[in-house]
Amino acid sequence: MTYRWAQTEPEQSRAAESETNVNVLTCVFQDKQYVGFATLPNQVHRKSVKKGFDFTLMVAGESGLGKSTLVNSLFLTDLYKDRKLLNAEERINQTVEITKHTVDIEEKGVKLKLTIVDTPGFGDAVNNNECWRPITDYTDQQFEQYFRDESGLNRKNILDNRVHCCLYFIPPFGHGLRPVDVEFMKALHEKVNIIPLISKADCLTPSEVKKLKDRVRDEIEHFGIKVYQFPECDSDEEEEFKQMDKELKECTPFAVIGSNTVVEARGQRVRGRLYPWGIVEVENQSHCDFVKLRNMLIRSHMHDLKDVTCDVHYENYRAHCIQEMTSKLAQDNRTGSPLPILPLPTPDVETEKLIKMKDEELKRMQEMLEKMQQQMHEKDQ
Amino acid sequence: MSEIVPPEVRPKPAVPAKPSHVAPPSSGSALLGYIGIDTIIEQMRKKTMKTGFDFNIMVVGQSGLGKSTLVNTLFKSQVSRRSTSWSRDEKIPKTVEIKSASHVIEEGGVKMKLTVVDTPGFGDQINNENCWEPISKYINEQYEKFLKEEVNIARKKRIPDTRVHCCLYFISPTGHSLRQLDIEFMKHLSRVVNIIPVIAKSDTLTLDEKTEFKQRVRKELEACGIECYPQKEFDEDMEDKSDNDKIREAMPFAVVGSDKEYQVNGKRVLGRKTAWGVVEVENPNHCEFSLLRDFMIRSHLQDLKEVTHNIHYETYRAKRLNDNGGLHPISSGQDTQEIPMPIKHTQVISKPTKF
């Protein structure tokens, strides 16, 4: 009997074992039951690194405010090596120009195609009426070109020349924003991300910097200028990051100093400016906000700047353009023929067809929604 | 007639340049003993101390370049309105205004009535065309006032002098070159008033940048034919010329102004305190404020007044008299009428101005 018991025991135990084995196996299966799309960010990363990034930065402000020096300091390049400075006589008949410098920078295998759009002549004349017009025309032109390319046949290699960010240099010598600053920013705040900077901040004492920053912030609010806003931190970010983000936001507008020369300070070779009364270090946080600007512009918010340009400014432009087109359509009572707003032969007809299709789709979906709502009502009753 | 020739002979004050008993005078009369002519210097000094004198300085430049602070630093007193604490309501004026404030300051028994003429709104608008016109108008009005007083039959013993003796023009320290506006202003006004250009807020330039900038500014001024004070054509003798040449080489002065004192190396100095050091205003290695002060106040103050009176004012006067065919001397109280009467062209002799 016991013998049989003994025989059955192992069976039971084996059954129990197999049960536990099954339990163990299911656990293991659950661990291995992941699809594997968590590696998507890595794939995106690899593809982007191969493709490279591009970024277009515009610098605007009167001449002599250190724009070129700051750009050189930010990207550790010398974009303006062979620049010839014009004297006042030569500048009499100069109008505001738009110049572009492109440089390819590579760091740790990541390629960046950086385009700097400069605006020499801005604010330099005696009569500066509408001196921002060439700049607004340029940004509109880039949007228009992208709009056309997007609606075109070959969309694989669209060149994105849209301006992602505009650094506007405010002179430190004044008491706040001047009329020309206000007008420029109001003309451009809905087309481009504007980041106002206080330039040549080494001529201000710390209390003067604070006063000027407060004043500029007040005036920006007073005139309703929409400068680039840092996005809010996610609630699940670390405390330290949140603290840094808060400090960053309170520091705007950044008071910056740039330098093309390397000096010896505290036993190290740093970028700085040598004065008889001391050495200003560009990368010293207690001297100026250069490090904050660089971190913000390059290390944390470069992608966000591009996103805002694509999602907000470009979409505004596009909606405005399409509205104009459709209103013209209604006015002229023509339905199919291409209009001279965007003079393209076939793609125009295509976009109009697309729009019509989308409209119809929307209508259909709305009808379906209504039907569903009705059905739900009937069910409730 | 628009041909204006500055008078060749400047009426010299009746003071010999050197004491007469050092070398025998070349023209004849040998002195047989001590007369005491040289005590006239002492007599003049006493009189000056009693009457005091006027000095009018105008400051021109964009807002925020430290004009008021510099004038306060120059005269070591609060003579100019401080606009560093602007409230929102104090907006940039739409046109250039002219605001003048007078103070009497005293030093060593000598009283000076200092008038500072400020020009808020200059160069601050988007469109700055002809923003120098109100300034030019003001200067000419002062000349006109003086002329009217002079031409009166019953003249005051001491004509109140409101003419601008010196105009400090503040150049923005861009480090590149002069701005269009700077050149236009100086072109229009260098023949009317003594202009001394200064580079404002020069603590933003390193030494190399400063030298380069000054050189470029000097070249540009020369290229445009702008003559700032001290003008080359009014140098009297070799001594003057060599002194003034030294000054012309150092102009425009790169200055820093401040009215706050800090402790540096155990001394209290005027300066600006930043995170990387203290900029000492009166240290010649840091900026050229002391050069400017010595030049303007300690050596050329009187000369500024003389050039204004003898050159600029005379030019204005000659032009006015020529335009009107001779001003009819009138009694005080009436406006000068531009009556084209056939008057004999008599020379209106002006009294030498008391200092």
Would you kindly provide a written description of the structure presented here, covering whatever features stand out?
The complex is a heterodimer of chains A (381) and B (355). Chain A is α/β, with parallel strands linked by helices. In chain A, 49% of the residues lie in helices and 14% in strands. Chain A has 10 helices and 9 strands. In chain A, α8 (290-300) crosses α9 (302-332). The termini of chain A are far apart. Chain B is α/β, with parallel strands linked by helices. Chain B has 8 helices and 9 strands. Chain B has a 6-stranded mixed beta sheet with strand order 2-3-1-4-5-6, sandwiched between helices. A 3-stranded antiparallel beta sheet of chain B has the order 7-8-9, with no helix packed on it. The longest helix of chain B is centred in the last third of the chain and has 24 residues, at 301-324. Chain B is globular and about 65 Å long. The two termini of chain B are 32 Å apart. Chains A and B meet through α5, α6, β8 and β9 of A and α4, α5, β8 and β9 of B. Chain A: Residues 51-324 form the Septin-type G domain. Chain A: This is Septin. Chain A: InterPro entries: G_SEPTIN_dom (IPR030379), P-loop_NTPase (IPR027417), Septin (IPR016491). Chain A: Keywords: Cell cycle, Cell division, Cytoplasm, GTP-binding, Nucleotide-binding. Chain A: It comes from Sinocyclocheilus rhinocerous.
